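Field: COMPLEX_INPUT
Field: COMPONENT_COUNT = two
Field: RESIDUE_TOTAL = 898
Field: MODE = joint
Values follow.
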Amino acid sequence: MRFKKWLPRLAFRRDERPADTLVVVFLRGGADGMNIVVPHGEDNYYTLRPRLAVPRPDDNKIRKPDRAFDLDGFFGLHPVAAPLAPIFQAGHMSAVHAVGSPDLTRSHFEAMESMERGGINDQTVGNGWLGRHLNTVADRSSSPLRAVGWGAALPLSMYGSINAVSLKSILDYHLPGSKENADAMLAALSALYASAPADLAQSAKQVETVSTIQIASYQPENGATYVDSYGVTTDFDMALMQTAALVKADIGLEVSAIDLGGWDTHENQNGYFRDVLRVLTNGLNYFYTDLGDRINRVTLIVMSEFGRRLKENASIGTDHGHGSMMLTMGGHLSGKPVVADWPGLADDDLDRGDLRVTTDYRDVLGEILATRMGNDKLDQVFPDYTPMFKGVVTG
Amino acid sequence: MRPIDRRQFLKLGATAAALPFLSSPVLKALGSTALPSTLTIPRRSSDPIAAALGRIGFGAAPGQVEKIQTTGLEAYFEAQLYPELIYNTAALAKLQNYPTLEMSGPQLVASKKSSGDIATELVGGTILRAVYSEGQLEEVMVNFWTDHFSIFHRKGACLVLKTLDDRDVIRKHAFGKFRDLLGASAKSAAMLLYLDNFKSHRANPNENYAREVMELHTITTAHYNELDMRAVARAMTGWTFIDNTSSRNYGGFAYTAAAHDDTEKIMFGQVFAAGGGIEEGERVLDILAAHPGTARNIATKLCRRFISDAPPESIIATVADTFLRTDGDIRELLRAIFRSDEFKAAPPKFKRPFEYFVSLCRATGLQMTSPVRKEVLETLRKMNHYPFDWHAPNGYSDTGAYWIGNMLERWNTAYNTINGLLTGTKLDLIGVAIANGAANDPDSILDYYLTAMIGESVSEADRATIFGFFTRAGSVDLNTDAGQQALREAVSLIAASPTFQYR
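Field: COMPLEX_OUTPUT
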């Protein structure tokens, strides 16, 4: 195999049981799922969103590029997300709709906290669903870099596992000062930490491992550029690119968590929403392209703490709602572009004016953990809920 | 297939101190080293005074151990229980730039300072006091009760009201009787706002405070059921605060009889007759403060703070008994802990980031200007331990398992702090060492910090690693810039070492 100069030669013990790398993208702010995966077959969607509804795929009064891109005759993609359509058509991307949490809070931080903790009732439990997942599979591998949260701090979903590390960027993940000082200090710290307690020693190993990855030499494949038409590479792109690099480095990355903010579109949604949806679309596109065949070893989830109200508000925006959609990307999806127990959007079908939730978010997360991540202890990950598998992924 | 532009990489959060890291040797053969089967826990200092200062304070400052040797540790501890009698001019001088710390609610409004600035003053004041106050035990207890009665300061006006709570609830009652502390907290505008009791009305009782005051602040879930909780919520209706910023009593407690549910209630197996007014809520707090579940809860948390993450049952029982016997006299609880065998034999405890940073400032004699600059505040934020910024009412965790990990941020903190890269801070490593007895040569000066920070019982191997790092470019001449840099880097290494992560 051609030697890739940026890969560290990292030997670590691992199970032969195959598991995907799980990538969790959290859209912060309550993303308007109904305008991403558009229920163009619903009349009330158009009645209640006179200015914000995405035009039907067959609406001849609108230019074709501005209409929803049809997925299955009932749902479609927002035109800004249309570049993802080929991935849907390849069966490597799918949506789950009318999904959400039983928690009715409309507070961002309460909803996020509840979702990231996996809906545990005991308020004093501080760990998250990904942290608990990593703990149930803790002896599967001795790699120091099993889980990465991209950003300044670990997301709450990853709390509770010694295997999770937060990174802003691999390039910056090193000791400060001159290069000579950093190298010498790392060597000295490795010696001092060699006989420290396991959690502490693990942290030291994580720094060592990440420091040796020459990420600047990484070359994305298959034409993926991670640069948009304005020459911009966003933090979101960088997180996905570094995830792709770590996946290809085969150093035992099991979970990658990425945040994308800016979804709290209370006003003038047509502007902001399109911008942030474009960022999401571009990033997912680069990532998919870069991975190539490796998509068969990856499952990616896009989720948000709640959706938005069906009826648009007076500021041409939407307020905090409840039910929404999740997106999935991977090599082993169900094959349907949209998976949903669709409750309908007629006035009687709504839940306090919101899209009714018919699939618990943990049904999706649980099915993926069990089927793609080999976790057979879901009761430890979601102790207060028993997931029902809806056929989102295949084993 | 073009590679990513190097400039784009460096755009991402590159700091002034980080140089391009692109030409280092490619690979490091990490091998498949298993961790040694006998893991050594880093040793606390064998000096009982130095060790105690990491428990009843935020770690020894230069010369402090010697000073306490003259009076004895017991006398020092007793004096710490009465901070109002401690000579504290240095800390008080630093707080002169923080006038809001002494202001009432209306004065805070009149100051025209933004709520963000008021909150930043409180955080800065908290850091300065922890580093410089002679009343170290007071600062530890303020930190403890702040987490126990935790308030997320970014919830609306809590940014401003927490300043009142910090002074009039936490600091005022940190060493008093638990019932007084609980009562002050129940009437605190910040707490009433944070846990929503301010809007609790007999037509729509809010259960948030009722649940948390029992679950977290006092008896714990083992000792109440949902019916009790709903009854407590009804008993606390009408307890609110004056939120009109034009009022002369802005931020003060108010009881609104019209909002109070004065029907009969049954709670904790007792009948509360109809027509009970504010006294109902006071009676609830009386019951909670005197309950064995509370005694146990507070005892466990204090033992976790002062002794270990999993404190022995023997000391928890002793402290819980003391709580019940003395009606929750906090000084007595601390005396029971301090005098116990379990305290003397306590294993090392992993420092939380705030404790780590403060102990680092103290051990190196760091000088910090007031007002505290944002680089210092950001240090705590990066380590995820920014004061008053924990969302949930249970406060920042006090167990090592939660905090261990992400050592890089600590190592970077150690380096940035000791190299004086935090704006508004200054160190004189050589001067401090010599003033405290070190001979004026490089090895002796480094040895001073080795002993002060990680104890004289450091292993030969670790000592060799540290001194080897110090002299890696040859012998050190402290009269040169390079030599002084070498000293700073070596002290950073000590601060980053496993032992200094524990107290």
